[in-house]
């Protein structure tokens, strides 16, 4: 499909795509594909007010009925999977297979959220007082602001929105200014769902804010936004956290990762090789869960690393819409510069760089295609403590597993991690209290590509938030502890006596 | 028991109680009872470093064994209940019955935590990939800083410590500078437990920081403190949240409450009367869950409020150590001034004040005894949106339950709330998504006096944290999502194809 | 739609509907609508063997993929809702609205089960031994035999099948010999789903056994059937339990109910009236949750019972396919005789009968239409301890709630129960440990019409099984407790010393 | 300690120990140590009636208060650990270390149950109807009959009793007629706890039935016994199940095991060796979790089995009260005969027997000391499908893990199992849906010695029951699903329309 066909298939009209001030470029060839109108802060506040009105209605719609909304959303997404997947690719540059994968993740979380809509389990709890019933229920929280990053333009919204909607919270979405089109396309889908759903869906149940950082700040500043779920860089997360701390508002933060793999002597190297390549160069190294650090036991280093360098050399780089491409472009020229800079620093710190540098410069000069880089490092130096959003894989050696785990844990980020080993003593140690300090720790698979059934997120500078599966839905609700006295006495807890 | 007997029974030595710069006064008569040495920030950092070393050891002690530590702590507290209860009374001024209740709460949470120590349940989760096992485990988090307030000098520490210790986290406690003695006495108990427990208990498992605000800041600033659990005022909570947002650290905040009771026409007024008095004047109105706002249906207003005023007039005010006393002193003269000021403002806003003003001025002039106040208000005016830490109960009328709930929810705090009604339609509505917006919502009992089995905490400016029962223990651990591939294939989630 | 149109719309072919020995009559007019071939016991054993082979494959299909099968089943049921609902009405005689409701319940449980397919949560558990990980997982159980009754010909199958399939268990269905057509129609739907689903769905994943009691016995006798879930009468349940006890096999039993409503003085009588009529005469009194006993406080007896008798007199009885009908026929003449007999006994025990007796005898003589009956009883006599599957409602008076609860609990069955009261003290007492002894206890709704989100089933002679929501899915899986030692030591639990 | 000192320390009086018709022999030397009065069936029925009265009171005592009872029980058991442990050894013959371990298990479950007493969590559940609240609560069940076996004379009672008591169920205990003394000693401890506890503990809260099979039948026959939890042989379990099926009563069955270990090529053989010996000869092979089948990979067979034979030859057999003894006596001469018979059959089926036969015949002729036996088998023959309650370990070879798992699963019992392997692919497969079919499956530890935190029990002929940790407590309570309509409407589930 051509770029214009993809845009047409997205349902966005010419009028919507033009006439504004926010220029949208496709990383595929660097060309401008739209120029969108941006919202003002005042408009944002109006939209928040509408969302709050929606909340007052939506919270009393029974949760299974709210689940039906999300079920319909899932059905629409199934219908639009190819069209939306292609738009994802066009707008953010990831290969089409990954674009489809992102939409599939949206579908999966909708299915999951539908099931949740008949659960949202609180507890009934044994009370210490006769004639008293104690319980805990979970109630809708309020308007949920969702801030997303360019690299996953749609799935994280859906992780948040599917849960938030089922939990009774309207959603206002501030997408990256680099990927607003997919957001608008998803909003169109939501609009269709609203129509099918009927009157129970209040006006403003889902909304999109198009613009820049000031709109994110409009969300954090407005007390009617009960919750901000933000995906992005650590500085962005710090800013959101600082803003929200002023009003003691709630956040779910999914920030940077600096994800490692430990390759143990007993590892299946063939499998490790494939996992490394997918994890390190998938999405051109721009996943928050991208593999960035490879910690290889000295005994298998020589059996693995040269093969890896060779595999890198043969990777098909090019148009992410073309079949067969495995490495698409970086999002923009800034990303290319950051990559170049990091490689220079790595070399300065003793690293040996394989690959790197711009690719397809003649044919795609306006775009930011690069050769993925492997950097053999003498140790875990300063650059390795930073997340550079590009396909750079640092490789270091280790002698003992304890040392490898220490290296894995020595960075400020705490998102994802993995070990390749067939030794259960090693794998279980890696997953234990004395093992990886990340929110995600895998065995014999890479650090990326989480299933939606587990809770997704990480510790330390990654921000501590959890999205998606397990009991992540609790982040979107408020908990209420109830004690009901149905007796004719008034005993006090802890056996206190207080007789007036 | 005399004050000196109480001090002696606490196990604190003369040397410990004297020679420092932090003067401790008892609110019972305003006299100085100790002058303690304060820690410097440098010492605090050393103690944190020790605690971190303790963490590295303690996290690998099996949780049920950690539970045994807490069981022994509970046993020691049982033995020391009277001595510690009396010291609580001496230091913070609550009546002895409440002092005992606070220790009982410590004991209860220990029992509960012991049970938890064989649970700390994560999940095994169905994976979408063949030959893959997915699960979620909870691991120790790191050093836990606990900041507590004068009004509950010991129980909140224990809510935090019992859970934190079982969860694998050493605890550093910064008590209120107004109530450091009880903290030191509890640390003595912990020292004895460590001795009984043996080598598994690392040095620095529990520690106490004596001093002022700078020590709290030492905790929030130090990245080795993984978690701060802070109880206190909203400004204090905001400061902690802002500090922690800089390093994206974790907090559990239990801040101010502004708790209301709705009295419906069908209420059992006799029972309501008793609940109101205990909730409003217990701990001399200095509980975070103290009843501060009484929202009475117009049909029962006249049957209730005059009786309440009369009951207040007969309350025994005096030495909290004396049997029969129900109202002890405020913590200090500042609290008395704040109460006076609030009553002046309330009158300015149209209120009719019953009671108020200093009590026992002749006999206890250095102390801050007061007459609890009832203020009949024409509506929910500005003063009613503020938490004044004193026994002031504002009373307003309502016509419809929806209106009463709106008033209840209109304040910035969201800790505790209750309704007195025998109508199940009213009580369930009050507990529903459209009802109280507080973390605690009770029926036919007052807002205070929570059992430890439920999660304790509140929404909005109350800070969102939860302590004590239910799954509050999760706040002290880090969650890890694991996927283990035990097959010989490497399928990707969401069915993505990526073949190198 | 005519009967033949309904049959045609079901997808069953002429060849399938004729030529056998099992005559199927519609209770609508008593006419024969099919004559089906019956399976032999030998065929049943072959089908079980096939199902067991299916199990060995299906158990290793990832649960979320199994969930996709159930999602597709739900989609097909949405498409066939009207056709299948009409067939339900034709075959078992319940009114079309209830036929649709039954299919809706199938759809709902499919949605719920899809969500479960990414959960099936076991636990990770804190181990008392260093270097040990403890957890609990749930695994597929084996072939699940489902035995259903005529009155809910399709929904209970789906409650069981949706969960069993997601849990990894193939299903063999033995429907009532009175309602085999709907079972065959559902199997057709399953066949279509299998085709869409592809090779992951093994042959024999769902199967239907057409015939009589010997086929049920073939299921209970065969050790390859790991689990029998049976809905029906108490004698049937006892027989299944006795058979399964021989091989220590697992059962889920949903047997008789003898459901009561308590109407308290504070009840909303208007609402109670409507709830009573729906609960007592819906499905012509042939629900397992049908209201059979009405326990009315003496103070409201006269305000309620005469109105109820009057409402009964005006109920539209007739063709269940016709719009406006609220009372369709009994299943057959035997049911009519049983009703007559019960009314005779009730009179002998002092009851005053309102209504009762055959209706529409001239026009529908071959069918078993009846006038629903209300019987005012002097006390809870012998007949009231029995479940007569017909629209008979016994009414007794009570003085105190304790007495009413005692009456409610005095029967051998323990399925469903309810109270109409607006007094929260009464409603909570009714739901407490000292209240109703039934598996279901409702407030201000009737005993029937459960949502699929809760666990469905009852105690005592009702058999103790639970189906549908909550953690009922555990009944379809086997639990495994795992301890993994990843250390190099071999400590024993409980600190036992045993050194060789 | 001498036998008489042990008896004296147990608190049982001379009068209690003599004068009856039930002769109690110690397996230590075969001598008679007591002659107890037996209860009649009529007395049993009276005791059940008393227990039912106790139930009516106990169910309304708040669960945390019930937990306090169990906490006091745990404290008493701590005090009596040595005395009771010695009596266990004297009466059932297990070595003193194991006697202590059994009491420790009682203490552990008490600690766990105390924690549970503030949980007993049901669920609050999202309802599909507006103005409706759905929840699920767990209520006390009724009198719990506990039937125990000689080999664990006290711990299984406590697993059941600690949970049952916390759950609100009085307990009647029918111990093995071979080990009634420990039961009486435990009842003495309970009596002391009742005294400390005060009036909340009703008469008959725990009771012991001394006698034979007819008393077990008295429990199964009496409808006031809501639940039977029985530990013992498969025939006993079948009888209990058949009896209870008649009245559709509830059972928890812990029956026979036939537990296997798979030793893989990658296993730590040193560790395996120790685990095998403890699991196979501990309690003289009379644990339900005793290792009975050893499935060894052909590549390590020769490295393991000869060492094992040698280790067996050196095992210290003798007086279980003597320090250093690892193998005490069988319970009686019948057990010895059964062992001899099994070895004869094993030889007939091609086995090579190492060890076996009576030991210490001269010195302890009246007792049944034996040499533990290892039998190398050519394949898994008929005798290996049977549980012989004696220290016989059958050893077979395997080639592939799938084959080993098939052998492991091919027996009718399904209690415990384990694998020794360091290969995570093998260990996870063993724990997967396609792995062990047992209720317990371990890695790198033996099949015996479960911690109380996990659910204990097994599948197939083992009976399906679960005791001890996880949510096993649910087996002692009845579940109630509640829907509360607090609206003024009466919507029906599934959207059914039914307007009168």
UniProtKB/TrEMBL annotation, chains A, B, C, D:
Homotetramer. The active site is at 254. PROSITE patterns: ALDEHYDE_DEHYDR_GLU. CDD domains: ALDH_F7_AASADH. Keywords: NAD, Oxidoreductase. Its EC number is 1.2.1.3. GO terms for molecular function: aldehyde dehydrogenase (NAD+) activity. This is aldehyde dehydrogenase (NAD(+)). It holds the Pfam family Aldedh. Residues 20-481 form the Aldehyde dehydrogenase domain. Belongs to the aldehyde dehydrogenase family.
